[in-house]
Design a protein that fits this description.
It is built from no helices and six strands. The chain is mainly beta. It binds zinc ion. The site of zinc ion (ZN) has 8 residues, from loops.
Length: 90
Protein backbone atom coordinates (compact mmCIF):
# COMPACT_ATOMS: atom_id res chain seq x y z
CA UNK A 1 0.00 0.00 0.00
CA UNK A 2 1.37 3.36 -0.97
CA UNK A 3 0.62 6.73 0.53
CA UNK A 4 -1.05 8.66 -2.26
CA UNK A 5 -2.83 11.30 -0.21
CA UNK A 6 -1.19 14.08 -2.20
CA UNK A 7 -1.16 12.36 -5.56
CA UNK A 8 -4.74 11.96 -6.65
CA UNK A 9 -4.69 11.15 -10.35
CA UNK A 10 -6.17 13.61 -12.74
CA UNK A 11 -6.58 16.59 -10.44
CA UNK A 12 -4.99 19.65 -12.08
CA UNK A 13 -3.02 22.23 -10.11
CA UNK A 14 -5.16 24.97 -11.63
CA UNK A 15 -8.73 24.99 -12.76
CA UNK A 16 -8.87 24.75 -16.58
CA UNK A 17 -12.03 26.88 -16.60
CA UNK A 18 -11.22 29.88 -14.39
CA UNK A 19 -7.54 29.46 -13.58
CA UNK A 20 -7.98 29.31 -9.83
CA UNK A 21 -5.40 27.34 -7.88
CA UNK A 22 -6.94 24.01 -6.94
CA UNK A 23 -6.56 23.16 -3.27
CA UNK A 24 -6.96 19.40 -3.17
CA UNK A 25 -8.09 19.49 0.42
CA UNK A 26 -10.94 21.82 -0.45
CA UNK A 27 -12.00 20.58 -3.86
CA UNK A 28 -15.74 20.07 -4.26
CA UNK A 29 -17.37 16.84 -5.34
CA UNK A 30 -20.26 16.60 -7.79
CA UNK A 31 -23.17 14.61 -6.39
CA UNK A 32 -24.37 11.55 -8.31
CA UNK A 33 -27.60 10.90 -6.46
CA UNK A 34 -30.54 11.55 -8.79
CA UNK A 35 -32.88 12.58 -5.99
CA UNK A 36 -30.73 15.45 -4.81
CA UNK A 37 -31.65 19.03 -5.69
CA UNK A 38 -29.66 20.81 -8.40
CA UNK A 39 -26.72 22.99 -7.46
CA UNK A 40 -28.15 26.21 -5.92
CA UNK A 41 -25.63 28.41 -7.73
CA UNK A 42 -25.36 26.73 -11.13
CA UNK A 43 -29.07 26.00 -11.25
CA UNK A 44 -31.35 23.43 -12.79
CA UNK A 45 -29.72 20.64 -14.71
CA UNK A 46 -26.46 20.90 -12.77
CA UNK A 47 -25.75 18.35 -10.08
CA UNK A 48 -25.18 19.52 -6.55
CA UNK A 49 -21.62 20.48 -5.64
CA UNK A 50 -20.64 19.76 -2.05
CA UNK A 51 -17.70 19.65 0.29
CA UNK A 52 -17.16 15.92 0.83
CA UNK A 53 -16.80 14.70 4.39
CA UNK A 54 -17.29 10.98 3.82
CA UNK A 55 -15.43 8.69 1.43
CA UNK A 56 -15.85 5.12 0.32
CA UNK A 57 -13.16 2.44 0.45
CA UNK A 58 -11.85 3.60 -2.92
CA UNK A 59 -11.47 7.16 -1.69
CA UNK A 60 -14.42 8.47 -3.66
CA UNK A 61 -16.55 11.15 -2.02
CA UNK A 62 -19.96 10.08 -0.75
CA UNK A 63 -22.76 12.52 -1.59
CA UNK A 64 -25.57 13.47 0.84
CA UNK A 65 -27.78 10.69 -0.52
CA UNK A 66 -25.10 8.07 0.08
CA UNK A 67 -23.93 7.59 -3.50
CA UNK A 68 -20.21 7.48 -4.31
CA UNK A 69 -19.14 10.25 -6.67
CA UNK A 70 -16.50 10.23 -9.35
CA UNK A 71 -16.41 13.84 -10.49
CA UNK A 72 -14.71 16.77 -8.81
CA UNK A 73 -15.42 20.47 -9.23
CA UNK A 74 -13.53 23.74 -8.85
CA UNK A 75 -14.36 25.56 -5.63
CA UNK A 76 -14.21 28.93 -7.37
CA UNK A 77 -16.32 28.40 -10.51
CA UNK A 78 -17.95 25.05 -9.60
CA UNK A 79 -17.26 23.54 -13.02
CA UNK A 80 -16.00 19.97 -13.32
CA UNK A 81 -12.23 19.71 -13.22
CA UNK A 82 -11.54 16.01 -12.83
CA UNK A 83 -13.10 12.57 -13.00
CA UNK A 84 -11.85 9.72 -10.88
CA UNK A 85 -11.98 7.20 -13.69
CA UNK A 86 -8.65 5.70 -12.78
CA UNK A 87 -9.80 4.58 -9.39
CA UNK A 88 -10.78 0.99 -8.93
CA UNK A 89 -14.35 0.06 -8.20
CA UNK A 90 -15.40 -2.86 -6.11
ZN1 LIG B 1 -12.68 27.16 -11.76
Amino acid sequence: MTDSSNAEPGIPDRCPHCGAVVDRAKVLAIAEGSRLPPDPILGAGESLRFQPSRFDVSGRPIDPSGVACRRLACRACRLEIAALDGMTTS
